[in-house]
Amino acid sequence: MKTILATTALLTMGLSSAALAEIRLGASISATGPAAFLGDPEAKTLEMLVEALNAAGGINGEDVKLVMYDDGGDPNKARTFATRLVEDDEVVAIIGGTSTGTSMSILAIAEDAEIPFISLAGAIDIIDPVKPYTFKTPHTDRMACQKIFEDMKAQGYTKIGMISGTDGFGASMQAQCKSVVADYGIEIVADETYDPKDADMTAQLTKIRNAPGVQAVLNPGFGQGPSIVTRNYKQLDIGLPFYQSHGVASDGFIQLAGAEAAEGVRLPGTALLVADLLAEDDVQKPVVTAYKAAFEAKTGTPVGTFGGYAHDAFLILTDAIARAGSSEPAAIRDAIEATSGLAGTTGVYTFSSTDHLGLDLSAFRMLEIRGGKWTLVE
């Protein structure tokens, strides 16, 4: 497990000499179902990190016990499992909520029970307004819109089309993009939607292509929908610059869409996708390369953004427990809120009483797909 020393080093620092009881962490992850391409690497990451941490001595000599359920992407199941984690399993914190819908279900239970919860989903509603016990690791959908519009403005685009999924993530990001687009001098001249179960979006894309003056197209969404949109976009030979959201920032998107169709697609992503391209003095490089090496050695599959969200949630929780010297939920919550300058795979986290995300736009890297691979635009 030498490959994850950069990750585990933080977990053994700042501990008190007082022994802690077995530390029970809960998780509700969508390891199967429509969001499995997100949840499966999240579940594997948590299992790997718990095994490595315990092999290295745990926290203050006490093992971490992970109690994890597969909610299949169903918000009702997520609520049931969150209740079970709190009432039956007596966990001191919860990681999960692969999707926005499952996260909203879990946070309602966690807040009532005053148990720290770290979401792995993107919607800004999860942490805005700030809720006492709820945090999250991915950038918000509003931040993704802002990063994309910054790039569009730099390219001189002033009129765009948008095609959004009607799922929780897509609808939220569509709304957030609309709320900030005017700040960048950009007008949305075509605004289409699709159901995540749709198998063809050519009708909507044709309307966007025919919109007067459209210069670029943005697709807020996650799951298989954006891959279908990307294939249809190529089939229609629209030829305009095409942007996706951070909701599809994984090699799985390229595989589903096809490298030829995905060629030239731009999106805001994390350092994890371009680990080998990071500068040697990049503060995230040690943790990114350590996690990438460990995950790929353990699973035999490429590392991805979404497993990275789980990595960061586990790092934030265990670092907080280490600094608090306590596994009491309130002490963990306070320690998370006091986290400063903690480098993860997604960015460098600094939380506060008014910021339960802990990231700014600098955590995003603008990426472009070239030759079936992720490349840095900046």
Automatic annotation (TrEMBL):
Keywords: Amino-acid transport, Signal, Transport. Residues 22-357 form the Leucine-binding protein domain. InterPro entries: BCAA_transport, Leu-bd, Leu_Ile_Val-bd, Peripla_BP_I. Residues 1-21 form the signal peptide. It comes from the Bacteria. Gene3D superfamilies: 3.40.50.2300. Pfam families: Peripla_BP_6. GO terms for biological process: amino acid transport. Belongs to the leucine-binding protein family. This is ABC transporter substrate-binding protein. It comes from Paenirhodobacter hankyongi.
